[in-house]
Structures are given as C-alpha cells and as structure tokens.
UniProtKB/TrEMBL annotation:
This is Flavoenzyme. The keyword Transmembrane applies. Belongs to the glutamate synthase family. One of its GO terms (molecular function) is glutamate synthase activity. Keywords: Membrane, Transmembrane, Transmembrane helix. It comes from the Bacteria. Residues 156-497 form the Glutamate synthase domain. One of its GO terms (biological process) is glutamate biosynthetic process.
Length: 535
C-alpha cells in the first residue's frame, strides 16, 4: 500500500514539475518572441502584461454585457430589452414585478390612459382564431445548476384584428394583400441568416397566423416558403432572384415568382435604415444553393449597388413600379429611409399629379439593424423612425395621397408601447427583424457580418447552424408575436380604444426633460406646418 502511495506522490511531483517547466518555457518564448516582433509596441516592452491586456480586451464585450453594464445601458438593446424579448418568446409571458426601470426624468413618449378604459370583453378582435404553441414553465431556478423547466403545449388566442378591421394593401390591384395582424417580419435574407433560422421563422410565423415575412434582397429561398406564411418578396438593386445573367430584370422569372401562392406583394428596396447603400456578401457565403437562389456565380463575392440602374428619378421609378404591378397583378411597394423634411416631397407630388406610385411604403428608421454595414452609415445617415414617420405622413397628407398608400414602420419597434406610438404617428403596420432573431436564439454577439454566429442564427456554416433547433425555436417565434399582439390590445384598452387600429396622435403625450408635456397632436401640427410652408 505504501508503495502505491509513494508512486502517486512521485507521479504528482513529476506532473507539477512538467507543468512548471512548460510554463517557464512558454514565458521565456513569449518574452523572446514578443520583444523581437515589430508589430505591437506594448508587447516589445511588456510582453507578459501585454498578453494579459489583449486577453482582457478580447473578453471585454462579454464582461460588459453580462457583468458591468447596468440593465438599461447595453446597445443596441439593453439587458432589459433583450430579456423582455427572450422571456416573452420562451414563456409566453411579459409580466414584471415591483416597478419600472425606465428613467422618468428623461424625455420621451407616453400613451395617454383613459379614465374609463375598455374592458376585456369590449376589445374588438378575432376571438375565434387560435394558435397552438409550446412554452416553458419555470419550476426551479437554482444558483449553481441549470434551471428546471417543463415544456408544455399551449392553446392561445391569435389576437388578430376583427375581419372588418383588416388592413388591405393594394385594394385596386388584381390580388390585394389582406392582413389581420399588424406586426410582421422585416427583410432578412437567406445567406445573411442560415436555413435553420429562416425555416424556424417561416414555420413560426405561419403558426401564429395573420402575418407576413419579408425575404430581404437575397431572393426567395425554399426556407422562406417552408412554413406557408404570406411573403413580401423584396427586390434590391441587384435584383437577386429575378435577374438574368446580365443583372437585368428577368420579367418571365418575375412572373413565375408572382404566381407562387405565398407571395402576396413585391417590395422595391431603395434603402434601409442601417445602410443607405447596397448590400454585400462575402465569397465564402455564396455557396451553390445561395448562388442558384440569387441567380449569381457560386463562391464569388457579390455586391448590391446603392440604387437601381433602371431608374434615377421619381418618374422612372414609378414607371418601374407600374410595370411590375401590371406584369404580376399583385401590390408593389418601396422600402426607404427619410433624411429630412423634403425627402418625399417629389414622390408625393408626382403621385398626386399622375395617380401612379407604390401601394405601400416600408419606412425604416436609422436605428434599424443589418447583417453588415459601415459605422458612418449606421450612425449618421437617415432619421430615426419617430422623426421620419411624421414627415412621411404629413407630406402624403399635404398632397392628398395618404389614403392610397399603406405605411409599414420599422426601427426597434419591439414592444407594444413602441408599436402603439408608431401607429399613432400614422403607421398602418409594423416590421420587426432583430426581435425575431432574438426569439430564435440571438445573443447579441455582434458577429452577424462574420459568418461566425455562435448560436447558428446569422450564419450559413453547417456546424454552427446545428445549434438552432427548428422544432423548438419556431414556437418561440409564435410566442413572441402573440405576446406582442396581446400587449397591443391591452395598451389600446388602457387608452380607451377597442382596437390598436384606432390609435391617433391625440392618444400620445410627449414629456421633455423639464417635465413639460406636449400632445403628439401639437407635434404633428408643427411638422405639418414645416411641410406645408414649402412651395
């Protein structure tokens, strides 16, 4: 027995000795190598401390996200924002306790509550349509081990609009697009997101009913179609998916796409909030499947120009829209960003003069997201949605064409109160992208542009995509959307409205940092005055 003990002691000392030798050799190598290299100044003078500095710098974002940022500090979404989306998608619940974490000394918008709110039974929505989903029930949440949860079936109201309140896009087209849900998925391309992510979104949105998904400018993939959800197919300047070998519009292919039962509308992309230029996809992401979908050459980097070659003014753009509408028989809209009070003056004027123009306008705020863009464009080009919406609405009203076009707003509208404010400003519908990404597992690593998303959302890497289990994440999409709709009716009732479609500027107040309150009505009148004063 003592022999075995002596052997273990000797073995232990040997292992410790080897570890020490390895560490010493590694330290000597670092000192010699780092002092000799010519690329990093700090390593030449402080090789060991320099290595520690780079390590701490590398893990800095994660440390700030999980430890050092307060609940309301993180960007683009704070910890509170992120957890709110995760919990509603995972647990089909959005209840919090104790009190708000909002800083009420800061300026901001507030929904006016009614002295006599609507009762639950007075809310006007489709009470017949149900959705079948799954949600987690939290059983235990211990400190040192994984939380215990139960995965159970749930049947919920879909919280869709009443039939007579449905929003109709392109009522004068051959095939109008009728919607009973006010919230849909903003443009996200296959290639930017992986097939598991797009599939989970398609199946989840279809199960939630009454909504839509936008393909993004990357073309229509089989994964967008897999759930059977209604689709708005986006066409960017490179015309991926409907282009010929020369990059021009393939009108026969466009017609074939329009005959796909799920495609209800086309959207011409002029710009998006986070990148008022074209898109880019690296060569390694252009696999044969993506190349076939986009009608491009495999494994060759592709760029989408910052505008269409086919037109360069409002007249030629509207002619292009008219040709697509006549060729396909379905509604055609545009996606745009507003940069100032005169941004849509020419379009609205031309619509009045000719009767031409889009059936809907997707207005994207500068705070919107993207898979990849440039800092100067993300931060400083294009107005945020709460500034842009009043300009668009006021300009269309000035020329008497507001009723001809539906407005879809987007830009961090991921909670019912934000959506209610956008509706009061004049939006008819709302698009969400990153909220749905978070619902299917996004943890905000900010690596969307690198194809290295660790949770399998914004990547086409087959190994990384394995992390995203479709049959679980699709239910989170359902839960997130249903929770938003339910909250939207709840906040409408608090404002004395039977449905969120009745939100108007008079239902919203704005409080400045001094506590002075202004009605959104007065703000809209001021914007109207600015728009109306221009000749």
């Amino acid at each position: 027995m003592s022999g075995i003990a002596n052997l273990l002691i000797i073995l232990g000392f040997t292992v410790v000795f080897i570890i020490i030798i390895v560490l010493v050799l590694l330290l000597l190598y670092m000192i010699f190598f780092d002092r000799m290299q010519k690329h990093h100044a700090i390593l030449r003078n402080y090789p060991v401390l320099g290595r520690m500095r780079y390590f701490l710098e590398k893990i800095g974002p994660e440390m700030r996200q999980y430890w050092f940022n307060s609940d309301n500090e993180g960007k683009p979404f704070s910890r509170d924002d992120y957890e709110h989306m995760v919990k509603s998608s995972k647990y089909l619940r959005d209840v919090i306790g104790f009190g708000s974490k909002r800083d009420f000394d800061e300026e901001g918008f507030f929904v006016k509550n009614s002295m006599f709110p609507k009762l639950a039974e007075e809310e006007k929505y489709d009470r017949e349509t149900k959705v079948t989903t799954k949600r987690y029930i939290l059983l235990k949440d211990p400190l040192f081990s994984q939380r215990e949860e139960k995965w159970e079936d749930e049947v919920s109201s879909a919280f869709l609009l009443d039939d007579e309140d449905a929003v109709i896009i392109g009522p004068n087209t051959k095939n109008p697009f009728r919607l009973k849900g006010l919230i849909g998925m903003s443009a996200m391309s296959y290639g930017s997101l992986g097939k598991n992510a797009i599939t989970a979104l398609s199946e989840g949105l279809a199960a939630a009913k009454g909504t839509w998904m936008n393909t993004g400018e990357g073309g229509l993939s089989p994964y967008h179609l897999i759930g059977g959800v209604d689709i708005i197919m986006q066409i960017g300047p490179a015309m991926f998916g409907v282009r010929d070998s020369f990059g021009e519009m393939d009108w026969d292919e466009l017609k074939r796409k329009s005959e796909t039962p799920e495609i209800k509308a086309f959207e011409i992309k002029l710009a998006q909030g986070a990148k008022t230029r074209g898109g880019h996809i690296d060569a390694e992401k252009v696999n044969p499947e993506i190349a076939e979908i986009r009608k491009v050459v495999p494994y060759k980097a592709i760029d989408s120009p910052n505008r269409f070659y086919q037109y360069n003014d409002v007249k030629s753009m509207c002619d292009f829209i008219e040709k697509i509408r006549e060729h396909t028989g379905i509604p055609v809209g545009i996606k745009m960003v507003i940069g100032g009070t005169d941004s849509v003056e020419e379009l609205a004027s031309y619509m009045k003069e000719t009767g031409k123009g889009p059936d809907f306008i997707s207005l994207d705020g500068g705070e919107g997201g993207t898979g990849a863009s440039y800092q100067e464009l993300i931060d400083s080009v294009g107005l945020p949605i709460k500034s842009a919406l009043p300009i668009l609405v006021s300009t269309l009203e000035k020329y008497g064409v507001r009723d001809r076009v539906k407005i879809i707003a987007s830009g961090k509208l991921f909670t019912p109160d934000r959506i209610a404010i956008a509706l009061a400003m004049g939006a008819d519908l709302v698009n969400i992208a990153r909220g749905f990404m978070i619902a299917i597992g996004c943890i905000q690593t900010m690596k969307c542009h690198s194809n290295a998303c660790p949770v399998g959302v914004a990547t086409t890497d087959p190994e990384l995509q394995k992390a995203l289990v479709i049959d679980e994440k699709k239910y989170r999409v359902v839960n997130f959307l249903v929770t938003l709709r339910k909250g939207l009716f709840r906040i409408s009732a608090a404002a004395g409205l039977e449905s969120p479609i009745h939100f108007q500027p008079k239902h919203i107040s704005y409080k400045d940092d001094k506590g002075i309150v202004t009605s959104l009505e007065d703000i809209m009148k001021e914007v109207n005055g600015q728009i109306g004063s221009r000749q």
